[in-house]
Amino acid sequence: MTSSSALTDEIRALYAEEGRPAALVGWFRRTAVLVPSDSQDGLWSAEYGGIRWIHAFTDEAALGRFALAQGADGTTDGTTDWTYRTVLGARLLDVVVPAVGVPAGVALDVGGPQPVLFPPVAGIVPDAYAVDADVDADTDADTDADTESAV
């Protein structure tokens, strides 16, 4: 497990158009992030574009800014009294996303100056839960069927 500084450095590089997407995913997987709890003590999430986005934050200040934007009472240092869990990025992508039961991804530092989305696609989440995995499988099957019928 690493501190969020390597992850935030990679995010800054991405926004400076010098980032390496694969490295960003790697740093996210190795970093413990903060995931706020919802009113039922589940993980805070929202649906957008047909995807369930689990919200995660690199630090308490980022979580605090989000909480303030949601109407929570915060302190002057940008933190709030919201409850949250510390979860390894890999656990979110490999365990939590598949458990959601619908297409899901992770929205990191949403509402902040440099948000990052980790969508449910191959290479980020397990292939069985990637929304693009079925498209590739169907395309290959169609190609194989066309080849066989032409022979």
Q: Note the run of SSEs as H and E.
A: HHEEEHEHEEH
Largest sheet: spatial strand order? 2-3-5-6
- From the N-terminal CA to the C-terminal CA, the straight-line distance is 54 Å
How many DSSP E strands?
Answer: 6
Radius of gyration: 18 Å
Overall helicity: 40-55%
Q: Which stretches are poorly predicted, pLDDT < 50 over at least 5 residues?
A: 74-80, 136-151
> Helices and strands: which structural class?
alpha+beta
Q: Classify the beta-strand content into a percent band.
A: 15-25%
What's the topology here?
Blueprint: H1 4-15, H2 21-30, E1 32-36, E2 45-48, E3 51-56, H3 60-69, E4 84-88, H4 89-100, E5 104-108, E6 116-118, H5 133-150
Parallel strand pairs: 3-5
Antiparallel strand pairs: 1-4, 2-3, 5-6
Keywords:
single chain; 151 residues; alpha+beta; four-stranded mixed beta sheet; 41% helix; globular
What does this structure look like?
With 151 residues, this protein is an alpha+beta fold. It has one domain (32-150). It has helices at 4-15, 21-30, 60-69, 89-100, 133-150; strands at 32-36, 45-48, 51-56, 84-88, 104-108, 116-118. Helix 1 packs antiparallel against helix 2 (21-30) and helix 2 packs across helix 4 (89-100). The radius of gyration is 18 Å and the shape is globular. This is SseB protein N-terminal domain-containing protein.
